[in-house]
Structure formats: structure tokens, C-alpha cells
């Protein structure tokens, strides 16, 4: 019988991606007591980067929102791995960090980051409304427009 969160994903028509292997020398997540630190997840989907470029130049705010949503899906897939397959063990999303590849003039960082935050709240409810930070950067790994990392409390 699927858990509450898996049932919610099915209700929303969301299929999570497979958790791939790290592309460098790092762990995809680490666990300390009841906290899981999820490493940065970019716009990698089905083995290829989506939404390549800078927001405000090649990427629109609307497309960047979707890119952040892909990061959120990758984060949730890693939540599942950190929780031994049981997303019901996620008690809270404590912190969400979003990195956005932007032009120097770009100012709508929050609109982009909402792509990941909105997804987390849609799936987990208000317990997934995190403390959040957003950082603009000139480039991100793989040329991705957006990347995100998270800290979650687990049961």
C-alpha cells in the first residue's frame, strides 16, 4: 500500500526521476541524527540537462520557474532515497537553497525559486514551506539555469 506522500504524488500525476550517481566526488545526501542534507540538484532530467543558459538572457522567468520545479522533483527523489524509500518519513523541509544563473541586471530571483517551493508545498503541505535562500550566479554546473539543495527533518 503506498504511503500518504506517494498517494499525493500519484494524485498530482507526478512521477519522480531515478536518482542517478553523483557526477563528481560528493555524496548525494548525508544524514546526521534526524536531518538529511541533500546535495545540489540541477535541471538534469532523463539523463540530460534542461533549461541551459542564463535567466534574463536565454531563459525566461517562466521557463526558469519550470527549471526550478525540475530541481524540486530531483530533490524529492533524493528525499525518498535518504528516507529508504518512504517519503512519509519527511517531517519538514527546513531549508531550501536555490541557485540561479542570471545576468547582472536580473531581479526576479524569488519568482524563479517559487518553482521549487511551490512544488514542495503542493506535495508535502505546509510542513514543506522552508526557510529559503536564493543566490544569483553567472554560471552553474552543466550550464543549468537553476540548481537547488535542501535540508530536511526525517523521522
Give the H and E element order.
Answer: HEEEEHEHEE
**Count of separate structural domains:** 1
For the largest beta sheet, what order do the strands appear in spatially? 1-2-7-5-6
Strand content: 25-35%
Which regions contain 5 or more consecutive residues with pLDDT less than 50?
A: none
Q: How would you describe this protein?
A:
It contains three helices and seven strands. With 155 residues, it is of the alpha+beta class. The chain has one domain (27-154): 60s Ribosomal Protein L30, Chain: A. The strands form two sheets. Strands 1-2-7-5-6 form a five-stranded mixed β-sheet. It has a two-stranded antiparallel ribbon with strand order 3-4. Helix 2 (61-82) packs across helix 3. The longest helix is centred in the middle third of the chain and has 22 residues, at 61-82. 36% of the residues are buried. The mean pLDDT is 96.
Summarize the structure.
With 155 residues, this protein is of the alpha+beta class. Helix content is 30%, strand content 28%. The strands form two sheets. A five-stranded mixed beta sheet has the order 1-2-7-5-6. Strands 3-4 form a two-stranded antiparallel sheet.
Q: What tags apply to this protein structure?
A:
five-stranded mixed beta sheet; 3 helices; alpha+beta; single chain; two-stranded antiparallel sheet; 60s Ribosomal Protein L30, Chain: A; 155 residues
What is the secondary structure topology, with strand pairs?
Layout: H1 4-12, E1 29-32, E2 35-41, E3 44-45, E4 48-49, H2 61-82, E5 90-101, H3 109-124, E6 131-137, E7 146-154
Helix pairs in contact: 2-3
